[in-house]
Amino acid sequence: MRFTPLPLVGVALVAMEPHRDARGYFARSFCEDEFAAAGLPMRWPQTNVSVNAKAGTLRGMHFLRPPFEEPKLVRCVRGAILDVVIDLRAASATFRRHVAVPLDTRSGDALFVPPGFAHGFQALADDTEVLYMMGASFEPAAQDGVRWDDSAFGIAWPLPVSAISPRDAGYPDFVG
Fold first, then answer.
1. What is the CATH number of domain 2-19+29-137?
2. For a tag on the chain, would you pick the N or C end, based on fewer CB atoms within 10 A?
């Protein structure tokens, strides 16, 4: 695997190194030793799947309030997404900045999201499936979010929003 740091401290692109032959390819998507060497979490107690019927579906921008923040490893296993993270760590040099990363089945890349970031994505194709490895068990009482279109972040979503949950649409603008 290759670990490429992105402009927000702690966020990394995790690329598989496929071994190809006539059958297709085989690649390691997680290795405890390689993650440890890269300084990333090695414990993933929960895995989630998100299936998105229509291109333009938007999920986010979600986070868990302290002390329940969680790291995530996000991979698009069918279709394509634009994955977005916002640094909400007040003491960070990149506070309130975001990074947007395309993820799709062809590349197989994953995005590592450290604790303290809001996360969301937009499906770029119909029938898109996203797999999340979570570094902590979900704590429902700590869930929160910020508006996906908050001007404080200036996220350029590539498609008109075709579907969004009432909860995600109703998050407030960021104050902080």
1. 2.60.120.10
2. C
